[in-house]
Amino acid sequence: MNAQPRILEVRKNVLKQNDEIARTLRERFRAQGTFVVSLVSSPGAGKTAFLEKTLTLLKPRYRVAALVGDLATDNDAMRLARSRAPVKQITTGTLCHLEAAMVDHALNGWDIGRLDFLFIENVGNLVCPSSYDLGENLRLVLLSVTEGEDKPLKYPTIFNSADVAVITKIDLADAVDFNESAAMANIEAVRPGMQIYKVSAKNGSGMEDYLRFLVARSTELTSESNVMLHRP
User: Fold this and answer.
1) What is the CATH number of the domain that holds 197?
2) What is the four-CA torsion angle of 219, 222, 223, 224, rounded to 10 degrees?
3) Secondary structure of 142-202 in the HEC alphabet?
4) I want to staple 197 with a disulfide (CB 3.0 to 4.6 A). Which of 9, 24, 130, 210 is the partner?
5) Residue 31 within a domain
6) What's the pLDDT tens digit per position in 15-50?
């Protein structure tokens, strides 16, 4: 009879502890000038390919690194390593999401102050990750053209908890008869005014605009941090 209230209390305590660690991480990232981006999506949305392309394009000009979460195997970490950026794998076992404590532990041995960008690739899941703050500055939710246009309506919480939506595999849109206007309308219905980028990790389409946005947001954060540090 009392099982449900007990479960809710445990969950509340877990989330509270996670938020405290995430807040500490965010303050650490800000103090050291590192811009942190997390990526969430369902399995197969092209998250790893998109991140590999991001790391490869940023690396010539910026200091970048990535943490990648998965239930098992280090396949994604091995793929990301092809970008020649530092990469660490976080194996979650039975957990379908990353937690702030996992990120904190994975950063042991890394000098975060030497990074301009840190990317965190979450486990492929559109439900659990929405509840867990990782201390990131920006959360991207990815939707591939092969998944259909109604993902935002089916999983509104993750779209509401994210800052930016990225439509991936745009090079396949015609082949899978993707209805772009419907997808855009569904995102707008769930999260009015949400920034949306349409990209292809395969041919690079849309990547330039997306990366320009990332750099601009990073610059804004650095400027704000400097103002706070020098405020009397």
Assistant:
1) 3.40.50.300
2) 120
3) EEEHHHCCCHHHHCHHHHHHCCEEEEECHHHCCCCCCCHHHHHHHHHHHCCCCEEEECCCC
4) 210
5) yes
6) 899 999 999 999 999 999 999 999 999 999 999 999
pLDDT(225) > 80: no
User: pLDDT tens, 109-168?
Assistant: 999 999 999 999 999 899 989 999 999 999 999 999 999 899 999 999 999 999 999 999
Q: Is residue 5 part of a domain?
A: no
Q: How many structural domains compose the chain?
A: 1
Looking at residue 129, its amino acid is P
Instruction: Give me the pLDDT at residue 81, please.
Output: 86
Whole-number average pLDDT of the chain: 90
Evaluate whether residue 132 is within a structural domain. yes
Token digits of residue 201: 């990790």
DSSP 130: G
Residue 24 lies in a domain: yes
Residue by residue, DSSP assigns 31-88 as HHT-EEEEEE--TTSSHHHHHHHHHHHHTTTS-EEEEEEESS-SHHHHHHGGGTS-EE
Among residues 39, 83, 76, the alpha carbon closest in space to that of 58 is found at 83
